[in-house]
Amino acid sequence: MINIRTGCSGFYNRHWKGVFYPEGIPQSKWFEHYCEHFQTLELNTTFYKFPTPERLKPWFKKSPDDFLISVKAPRLITHFKKLKDCERLLNDFYTACEAGLKHKLCCTLFQLPPGIPYSDEVLQLITEVLYPDFKNVVEFRHESWWNKKVYKTLGEKNIIFCSASHPKLPEEVVVNSSTAYVRLHGTPDMFYSNYETDNLKSLYDTLKKKKKLKEAFVYFNNTAGIAGIQNALEFKKFGSRLTTKIGNRLAGGQYG
To answer: What is the pLDDT of residues 241-251, one digit of tens each?
Structure first.
């Protein structure tokens, strides 16, 4: 069975107080509370501030042993340098992630800006500069990247194509690897819109039907308000219901 891990793009959110975080819990304990409900987190703060081992180690120390953290590459690499001439920066980024998070490091996410359309040159650059020993994910923001050549080329290099729910991008769930990575930004209002139950169930069922998948990471980034945390909690329940259902059948002797 595919292992679907659900989380949010960040956890430090004042809007969630009284909705997800109980009123009596201090902000210093929010991360621990988050870890009690989810198995993974996507760190977005690293997009704005270059990560170091020292900055990442607290997340390693405070989280459970089986908790996984995905780290977003700094905009200095993806937006300012656009992956060009940044060998040292890439090395520093990968080194910090590995040293700071150790076995809890999940995926390294590279989000390219919308001003970069598809080209053979950029596709080749991506496959050449990303370190193959890491579970790399690339999120494109220009619709021209949604094509079979991209899926195939990245897949051959074990680079995961990020599926995104975004107001200006295709809704297709792309699977080009044994790992799927999905970011839900909110649509039609980016960062704000709530996803209806039917939409969430459809995504869950789509992932479950992908035969080549072994694992999937689903992160909610519609976190400008409370929609993201509510959607993440609801989406996680689909897996819990399935696990309970199978457990009941096993107990009743319907399997094996």
So the answer is: 543 343 333 23
